[in-house]
Design goal:
about 40% helix; Rossmann fold; 8 strands; alpha/beta; eight-stranded mixed sheet
């Protein structure tokens, strides 16, 4: 896959794939990751869409930011879309990237046509204990030291600890994760907790009654209680897809299934465009 275009916009590294005149599709990665986490699904998506990927501040190739609260992150993403002159964007968020995607729809419903959330925990009570390797890397007092000493193999093991099947971890994802400092990761994690503690994601989506939603969840997710995904079924205009045998990163574990679900979702939206389109 070759990148269509690269730029730095509003403090974020932005990658474009696919034709600019195609319907826009924005991909937002989770914490401890980068836009490279989408590599396996981008080729299929870029056949039909102008795919925009961002490295959130402090992640991948983006510089750190003064603050990492979720509404501020969403505001930066909105500014990128405004600069591109885009409206009615399909926004896809993986894990905590789903919080940024949801906040974007809350702030700027004129920008967001529909939302797809992948492995986005609905509320804090659904969070499972961290895998051991992540507890070691993140816990005091040795966390900061061990984090700074991470090898590429350790980073791969940390990513694979949240999957349920062997996967190829893209080299540029490892590089992007390496650039995340311990301080940045902890700040981001704290703000993600604050966002979902204030109001659960299903409740937030229910208030966005004009926005269609697709929720993709691994039925064997080791990060979030998989049964908690059913809470999204109470959201109007939302559809839940549970993937048997898949963990927390469907875009790496089941890229074909994930891209097919996303393309089917965007096609449904094209058949039923918003009234203001």
């Amino acid at each position: 896959m070759s990148d269509y275009d690269l730029e730095l916009s509003h403090g974020m590294h932005v990658v474009h794939d696919g034709p600019r005149q195609a319907p826009p599709l924005l991909l937002i990665h989770g914490s401890g990751a980068s836009g490279a986490s989408w590599n396996p699904v981008v080729p299929a998506l870029a056949d039909r869409h102008h795919v925009i990927r961002v490295d959130l501040p402090g992640c991948g190739q983006s510089p750190p930011a003064p603050a990492y609260d979720v509404p501020a992150q969403a505001g930066r993403v909105a500014a990128v879309l405004d600069d591109l002159g885009l409206r009615h964007v399909v926004v896809v968020g993986h894990s905590s990237g789903g919080y940024v995607a949801t906040a974007l729809a809350e702030q700027r419903p004129n920008l967001v046509d529909s939302l797809a959330l992948i492995s986005t925990g609905p509320s804090l009570d659904a969070l499972l204990p961290q895998p051991l390797i992540l507890r070691v890397l993140l816990g005091p007092p040795l966390g900061p030291v061990l984090w700074s000493m991470r090898s590429d193999e350790t980073i791969r093991k940390g990513i694979l600890a949240t999957t349920t099947r062997p996967v190829d971890v893209p080299n540029d994802l490892v590089t992007g994760v390496r650039g995340i400092t311990y301080r940045t990761f902890r700040k981001m994690a704290h703000q993600h907790v604050a966002y979902v503690a204030e109001r659960g994601v299903p409740e937030r989506l229910a208030a966005l009654d004009e926005v269609r939603s697709l929720v993709i969840f691994g039925a064997a997710d080791p990060r979030w209680e998989p049964s908690s995904a059913h809470r999204y079924e109470a959201v109007p205009n939302a559809r839940l897809e549970l993937l048997p045998g898949i963990g927390h990163i469907p875009l790496l574990e089941a890229p074909e299934t994930t891209s097919d679900l996303l393309l089917g979702f965007t096609a449904e939206g094209a058949d039923n465009p918003p009234a203001s389109a």
